[in-house]
UniProtKB/TrEMBL annotation:
This is Alcohol dehydrogenase catalytic domain-containing protein. The keyword Oxidoreductase applies. It comes from Candidatus Dehalogenimonas loeffleri. Residues 25-126 form the Alcohol dehydrogenase-like N-terminal domain. It comes from the Bacteria. Keywords: Oxidoreductase. Residues 174-305 form the Alcohol dehydrogenase-like C-terminal domain. It holds the Pfam family ADH_N.
Length: 344
């Protein structure tokens, strides 16, 4: 089979490998679509703390069951796959927190992922709820975007986004746009989204479903928030960019407001100081959000089946032989999501 193999930083090549075997109790899946996210691009170009070399990257994927040794699935089933691989037996798994599994692995980082023609899935992927049948009205490329939508669901559940909220989203990349659409779906009354990249500003105006797109190259966020909210502030801030200091965000929140640290902060900004008394006296909440659970992944696929829009976020489709162009498309912000399709 063909697979993209990362052997070191900026050392990605497409090679031929032996097709993996179908494990006992598991599945062998023929990959149909696997999206390229910004984490994939950074990992390929610069490495990643969770990466083990050599590695087949890719964690946003869908496919077709080629061989099954599990009674839940048969060959020909179209499936969407959650990338977390938990043991199912440790205390975290038993209390329903597979993200805290003591032996957690993630496809594309600590286990091989979806930039390959085939991927094998252990029985634990199935028993944890990590393999979902794709509804007939959902395309393979749409299904592959369940994983990033699930991560947004995780963050917004923790931040309790809901009816009547004014929400500020920092960053209008693919995940920022998903956040905007999800906040609207959850009943947010007003949505503001920021961006500085010219192309993404244009796309945000078309796709974000936001009430205002803020060009932070020309506008000051505090002034815009003051104008838009009558100096009151926003209920929720969702940090979907790793290039903004957290220290300046707390004053933008209303009393009891919630800040979600959805994006990992760049190292030069992650040690910024801020007044912790703001959290104390104003009863602010700061939550971290990383990844998602299998249940949230299933919820994301159900939302897409119900009409939640994701297809228009795919701005480039390419074959596995063209994956380097997809990495460039993603890293250089040439568009939004690039999608590797094995029938491309």
């Amino acid at each position: 089979m063909k697979a993209a193999i990362l052997s070191g930083p900026n050392m990605l090549s497409v090679n031929h490998l032996s097709r993996p075997v179908c494990p006992a109790g598991g599945l062998l899946v023929r990959v149909v679509c696997c999206a390229i996210c910004s984490s994939d691009a950074r990992m390929v170009l610069k490495g990643h703390q969770g990466l083990v070399y050599p590695r087949i990257p890719g964690h946003e994927l869908s496919g077709v069951v080629d061989e099954s040794r599990n009674s839940c699935f048969v060959p020909g089933d179209r499936v969407q796959i959650y990338p977390g691989l938990s043991c199912g037996h440790c205390s975290a798994c038993r209390r329903g927190e597979p993200r805290r599994c003591i032996s957690l692995k993630t496809m594309g980082f600590s286990a091989d992922g979806g930039f390959a023609e085939y991927i094998s899935l252990e029985e634990s992927s199935i028993t944890s709820g990590g393999v979902n049948l794709i509804p007939r009205n959902v395309s393979d490329s749409q299904a592959a975007l369940s994983e990033p939508l699930a991560s947004c669901i995780n963050a917004q559940e923790k931040a309790r986004v809901g009816q009547g909220d004014t929400v500020l989203i920092l960053g209008a990349g693919p995940l920022g746009l998903l956040h905007s659409r999800l906040a609207r779906h959850l009943g947010a009354a007003r949505i503001l989204i920021t961006e500085i990249d010219d192309r993404r500003l244009e796309l945000a105006g078309e796709l974000a479903q936001a009430d205002r797109v803020i060009n932070i190259g020309m506008e000051r966020i505090p002034q815009v928030i003051s104008d838009e909210t009558g100096s009151r502030g926003v209920n929720v801030i969702l940090l979907a960019s790793n290039a903004l200091p957290v220290v300046n965000l707390l004053p933008l929140l209303v009393e009891g407001g919630r800040l979600s640290l959805f994006a990992g902060i760049s190292k030069d900004l992650s040690f910024e100081r801020f007044d912790i008394n703001q959290i104390h006296y104003r009863e602010l909440e700061v939550t971290g959000a990383f990844g998602s659970t299998p249940a949230q992944n299933t919820t994301a696929l159900d939302l897409i089946a119900g009409g939640f829009p994701v297809e228009d976020l795919i701005t480039k489709t390419l074959s596995i032989d063209e994956i380097s162009a997809g990495i460039e498309h993603t890293n250089d912000h040439q568009g939004l999501r690039a999608m590797v399709c094995f029938n491309a």
